[in-house]
Write a structure and sequence with these properties.
With about 230 residues, the protein is mainly α. Helix content is about 70%, strand content about 0%. The relative contact order is 0.11.
Length: about 230
């Protein structure tokens, strides 16, 4: 499935509807994608299609009518997730409170990454051209840079915070593991709360500056230990 088709479906997923599908068919499609995304996150992208159908409570034939190939299902699941991440940044930019908007992006993106730690790296490695990742990444990073500027201007965010530090925060939370997804997510949220507390402007000591920021990219994040 082409990148354009993936993005179009991802955009329509925000409303829970897919153009041209009856309500029951759209419901089946959305349930399949949601189940697939969960299983990909837990087990990687090699989960059998029959397993996905069983967990989604649909027949294998129904699954293949919606998604004729494994790649089409994987791409759709990632496109939906990617669109959701972009919407997090858009919602934060619309928030009149600069600090709240800044914190919400870090909290939500770290949570997504904690839950889906296996899926995103595997997808990007297996299907690097399936979705226009670079364009979306640039849009997201522009938005985060703007949120960072606003939070500093409002006096809430320490002046030496760099946008590259977002990748650093994601690397930190990505290393969290526990005996269940729920405990892992809870631990991640606690760590993120500690980290956000540390970047507040009123906690910065001008006599103890931070070490220089390190240029980091999404590729560094994908290479970090899982």
């Amino acid at each position: 499935m082409g990148a354009r088709s993936s993005r179009m479906r991802a955009a329509s997923a925000d409303s829970g509807e897919v153009p041209g599908l009856r309500a029951d068919a759209a419901h089946n499609r959305n349930r399949i994608v949601e189940v697939a995304r969960t299983l990909f996150a837990e087990r990687g992208i090699d989960v059998p299609m029959a397993t996905i159908a069983r967990h989604a409570r649909v027949g294998v034939a129904t699954l293949y009518r919606r998604f004729p190939t494994r790649e089409s299902l994987i791409t759709e699941a990632f496109a939906d997730q990617f669109a959701a991440c972009l919407s997090v940044v858009d919602e934060a930019l619309a928030d009149p409170d600069p600090w709240r908007g800044f914190c919400s992006v870090i909290e939500k993106i770290c949570a997504v990454q904690t839950v889906d730690r296996c899926f995103v790296p595997a997808f990007v490695t297996a299907f690097p051209d399936a979705v226009d990742i670079e364009r979306g990444r640039e849009r997201a990073m522009w938005g985060f840079a703007e949120l960072t500027r606003r939070a500093k201007q409002s006096g809430h965010l320490r002046a030496d915070f760099a946008t590259d530090d977002l990748t650093l925060l994601l690397m930190a939370t990505r290393g969290i593991t526990a005996d269940s997804p729920e405990r892992t997510l809870a631990a991640s949220r606690r760590l993120v709360a500690y980290l956000l507390n540390s970047v507040r402007a009123d906690h910065a000591d001008p006599n103890e500056p931070l070490p220089p920021s390190v240029p980091l990219s999404v590729h560094d994040l994908l290479r970090s230990p899982r």
